[in-house]
Amino acid sequence: MNLALLFPADLTAENRAQLSGRRARHWHEVTGAQVGDNVPVGLLNGPIGCGRVLAITSQSVDLELEFSGTAPEPLPLTLILALPRPKMLRRVLQTVAAMGVKKIVLLNSYKVEKSFWQTPWLKPEAIREQLILGLEQARDTLMPDVILEPRFKPFVEDRLAALAGTSRRLVAHPGTSDPCPQAIQEPVTLCIGPEGGFIPYEVEKLVDQGFRSVHLGSRILRVENAVPVLLGRLFDSCSF
Amino acid sequence: MNLALLFPADLTAENRAQLSGRRARHWHEVTGAQVGDNVPVGLLNGPIGCGRVLAITSQSVDLELEFSGTAPEPLPLTLILALPRPKMLRRVLQTVAAMGVKKIVLLNSYKVEKSFWQTPWLKPEAIREQLILGLEQARDTLMPDVILEPRFKPFVEDRLAALAGTSRRLVAHPGTSDPCPQAIQEPVTLCIGPEGGFIPYEVEKLVDQGFRSVHLGSRILRVENAVPVLLGRLFDSCSF
C-alpha cells in the first residue's frame, strides 16, 4: 500500500479522517507509524497528499489531512477482456487499476467457462476491493469503471462501436501477421481473448467493427502477463 | 500447459516417451486426450514437435514422438532481480521463463527481507519446477540459468562487469529522470530493485558499473507487473 484511499465516510471534518480495518492495521503493524508521522493518502476520485497521524491503534487511525497533488494521468485505454478464471481475475483487476486503465469490460467468449460468471469475485464490492488495492499500489485515486458483458454478440454488434468511439481498435490475437504497435499517441480500445484465444467467428465479429488483429510474437503468454506487456508496449512510459 | 517438456529420463526409445505425474494427469483429465491424438511436446534444450498418444491413463502416457520445429528465440536479456518475496518469486520465475529470459540473477538488496533467502522455493528443484511451467506456457524448451547472489557488494564489484559484457546496462529506478527506452535492438542487462526500490548507495554502485537509471512513469508497479512492462517495452514484439 503506497497510499491509502480515503472515502467520504472516512472524513470526520474538512481536514480530518478516521480509518479502520485493513488500512489501520497496515500502518500500525506493517509500517509501525506513530503519532506525528506523515502517511500518504488520496481522496477517492480526488487529490493526493499526506495525513499526519493524530492517534493510532491496531483498530483505528486519526489523521489530519493535507492535499498537495493530483492523481497520475489515466491511460487512454478502454480494455475489453474475455472474463479470466476467478483467481486470475483478481490479479488482473489489481494490475489494470495499478496501470491506470479507467474503463474495463469483462466479456463473454466461446472459451470462457460458464462457471467463471458465477464467481463471488464478480460481485461489485469484490471487484471494487481489487481495484482499490491496485489504485493504492500505484498512488492513484480515480476509480475505474468495470462493465460486465456476459453475452458476446449483442455487446459487439450493439454497444462496442459507441464504446470505442474514434479510438484505435486493436484485438490481441496470437498467430496473426501484424505485430502490436508501439508507443502510440492516441486513445486505444484493446480486446484480449481468453485462455485458448478468441475463436475465428469472434475475431471476425471484432474485425467487422474495425478492430485490427495484432500479436506479441510466437510465445503464448498468460493473460496476467499479456496485459502488462501490451500496455507497456502500446503506451509511452510517461503515460504510466 | 501449451507444450509438455520432455526430459532424457522420459525417453524409452529414439522416438518414444513415457510420461507420468502432472503431465499425464493434464492430458488425461484436463484435455481428455485419447489414443491416436497428437499432443504438443518439446525436448529439454531441443526441438519442439508433437507426440501421438499410444496409450493413456491418469498415471502415464505413452507417446510416439515427431520433432518438426525449434524453440522460440531467447530474449537477449540478462535479468538481475532483487529477490522478491517467496509467493511473488514463483510467479516471476514463471513469467520470465515464459517471456524467454535465459539468464536470471536473484540478488540481495538492502530492502530484501533476510527471511526471503530461507524459503524452500529457492531450492534448485523448486526453481526448476517454476521455470518448467513458464517454458511449457510459452512453448519453449531452453532452460534458463538462475544464479543466486545473496551478497550485493561482491556481486556488483567483482562479477557484474563480466556478466554484463558489452550489453546495454539499465537499472529500473522509479523517480529517475530518463524514461525506459523502447524497442532496442541490442542485448540488455537490466536490474530491478525490491519492493521499496534500491537504496541510493546501491543505485550508485550500479551507476559506477555503467548502469543507467530509467523509469516507467509515476506509477509504482509491483515487480510481477514491472517485469512484463519493462520487457514488453524494451524488446520488439518479434523477440517474444
TrEMBL record, chains A, B:
A GO term for molecular function: rRNA (uridine-N3-)-methyltransferase activity
Keywords assigned by UniProt, alphabetized: Cytoplasm, Methyltransferase, rRNA processing, S-adenosyl-L-methionine, Transferase
Cellular localisation: Cytoplasm
Pfam families named among the record's database cross-references: Methyltrans_RNA
Biological processes annotated in GO: rRNA base methylation
Broad EC category: transferase
Domain Ribosomal RNA small subunit methyltransferase E methyltransferase stretches: 72-232
Catalysed reactions listed for this entry: uridine(1498) in 16S rRNA + S-adenosyl-L-methionine = N(3)-methyluridine(1498) in 16S rRNA + S-adenosyl-L-homocysteine + H(+)
Listed EC numbers: 2.1.1.193
PANTHER family membership: 16S RRNA (URACIL(1498)-N(3))-METHYLTRANSFERASE, RIBOSOMAL RNA SMALL SUBUNIT METHYLTRANSFERASE E
Role summary: Specifically methylates the N3 position of the uracil ring of uridine 1498 (m3U1498) in 16S rRNA. Acts on the fully assembled 30S ribosomal subunit.
Identification of the protein by name: Ribosomal RNA small subunit methyltransferase E
Organism field: Hydrocarboniclastica marina
